[in-house]
TrEMBL record:
<keyword id="KW-0479">Metal-binding</keyword>
<feature type="site" description="Substrate discrimination">
    <location>
        <position position="18"/>
    </location>
</feature>
<dbReference type="InterPro" id="IPR017961">
    <property type="entry name" value="DNA_pol_Y-fam_little_finger"/>
</dbReference>
<keyword id="KW-0234">DNA repair</keyword>
<dbReference type="GO" id="GO:0003887">
    <property type="term" value="F:DNA-directed DNA polymerase activity"/>
</dbReference>
<dbReference type="Pfam" id="PF00817">
    <property type="entry name" value="IMS"/>
</dbReference>
<dbReference type="InterPro" id="IPR022880">
    <property type="entry name" value="DNApol_IV"/>
</dbReference>
<keyword id="KW-0515">Mutator protein</keyword>
<keyword id="KW-0460">Magnesium</keyword>
<comment type="function">
    <text>Poorly processive, error-prone DNA polymerase involved in untargeted mutagenesis. Copies undamaged DNA at stalled replication forks, which arise in vivo from mismatched or misaligned primer ends. These misaligned primers can be extended by PolIV. Exhibits no 3'-5' exonuclease (proofreading) activity. May be involved in translesional synthesis, in conjunction with the beta clamp from PolIII.</text>
</comment>
<keyword id="KW-0238">DNA-binding</keyword>
<keyword id="KW-0227">DNA damage</keyword>
<keyword id="KW-0808">Transferase</keyword>
<feature type="active site">
    <location>
        <position position="108"/>
    </location>
</feature>
<protein>
    <recommendedName>
        <fullName>DNA polymerase IV</fullName>
        <ecNumber>2.7.7.7</ecNumber>
    </recommendedName>
</protein>
<keyword id="KW-0963">Cytoplasm</keyword>
<dbReference type="Pfam" id="PF11798">
    <property type="entry name" value="IMS_HHH"/>
</dbReference>
Length: 360
């Protein structure tokens, strides 16, 4: 039997979405380095303008560090109801072309336009029309990646930001991945990237040079994904996924932690990052869950449920601390801490890099 024709996948990613909305709505902020989020010592940057990024400011960065990098940084309180409304406008534009849309968050989504409503043969043409409509109807810009699968489309959308497009055809996919630093490949998080670097794997070409046995020995169940990704292969369909039941963030430490102060500090940092994901996804949960993986790889979870969804970062962080402190002193050092919220009320979904390869 003949193999089916390649899919036509578009990944649309709004440019500095929250910050761009703020600059659109407040002309006095245009051209300035701004960060959306908390500017206090415990605050976190949700996103920032391109003017701020030139100073090294990045999403999920502590507010204090962001101010040190950019003393003139202007912090703006987030307005998630506005961002959700604009996101709805953008999704309505998507619906003019296809119903096969997989939102990842308020500001990005995959679209399968292999078969599309207007009957346009060129996915590149569709992507350009979508970008033009977004600009005309919202006053914002979006970048697009166009390719034959989700992995490469997502990587491509980041190639020519802001307000750019990158097209990678099936014959170009392997070479595109080969030149890519592995830390940029979706599914390779910071911890895995460091492990790969220690093994001499810096680029997609380096990853492709390792056989399956090597990858299985070092990366276990994620080996198959890395093996195929290095060859530009990804057969995951674009689909509307079922409502997510949880949102979580976890981190693995280079050295096992056992001291209370260090554990609490790490958990507070994780809570900050989790809150950013919750707000970005609009996904509020009633149950806070703590995860601890010990040095012997044993895992325990502890949870606390509330009568209503948690809508305060302070309440989330305190619930996490209470769950952690109840386990002290630990029987042995912790190699990983995680915090999440379950029983969600929101509809959005979040893909997480380090978790991705284990949940295909």
């Amino acid at each position: 039997m003949d193999s089916p024709p390649p899919r036509k996948i578009i990944h649309i990613d709004m440019d500095a979405f929250y910050a761009s909305v703020e600059q659109r709505d407040d002309p006095s902020l245009r051209g300035l380095p701004i960060a959306v989020g908390g500017g206090g010592p415990r605050g976190v940057v949700a996103t920032c303008s391109y003017e701020a990024r030139r100073f090294g400011v990045r999403s999920a960065m502590p507010g204090g560090r962001a101010r040190r990098l950019c003393p003139n940084l202007v912090f703006v309180k987030p307005r998630f109801e506005v961002y959700r409304a604009v996101s709805g406008q953008v999704r309505e534009i998507f619906s003019r072309f296809t119903d096969i849309v997989q939102p990842l968050s308020l500001d990005e989504a995959y679209l399968d336009v292999t078969v599309n409503k207007p009957g346009i043969a060129s996915a590149t043409q569709i992507a350009e029309q979508i970008r033009a409509m977004i600009r005309a109807e919202t006053g914002l810009t979006a970048s697009a990646g166009v390719s034959y699968n989700k992995l490469i489309a997502k990587l491509a959308s980041d190639q020519n930001k802001p307000d750019g497009i990158c097209v990678v055809r099936p014959s170009e996919g392997a070479a595109f991945i080969a030149a890519m630093p592995v830390r940029r490949i979706h599914g390779v998080g910071p911890v895995t990237a460091k492990r790969m670097q220690a093994l001499g794997i810096e680029t997609g070409a380096d990853l492709r040079a390792r056989d399956m046995g090597f990858l299985q020995a070092h990366f276990g169940s994620a080996a198959d994904y890395y093996y195929r990704a290095a060859r530009g292969e990804d057969d995951r369909p674009v689909r509307e996924r079922e409502g997510r039941k949880s949102v979580s963030v976890e981190d693995t430490f280079f050295d096992d932690l056992s001291e209370e102060a260090a554990l609490v500090a790490e958990l507070d940092r994780i809570a900050d990052n989790l809150w950013g994901r919750i707000e970005k996804a609009g996904a509020w949960g009633r149950t806070v869950v703590l995860k601890i993986k010990f040095a012997d790889f044993r895992i325990i979870t502890r949870s606390r449920s509330f009568s209503a969804p948690v809508r305060s970062k302070a309440v989330l962080a305190q619930a996490g601390r209470d769950l952690l402190l109840a386990q002290l002193p630990l029987r042995m050092g912790a190699r990983l801490l995680g915090l999440g919220v379950h029983n969600l009320e929101g509809e959005e979904d979040v893909e997480q890099g380090e978790q991705f390869a284990l949940s295909l």
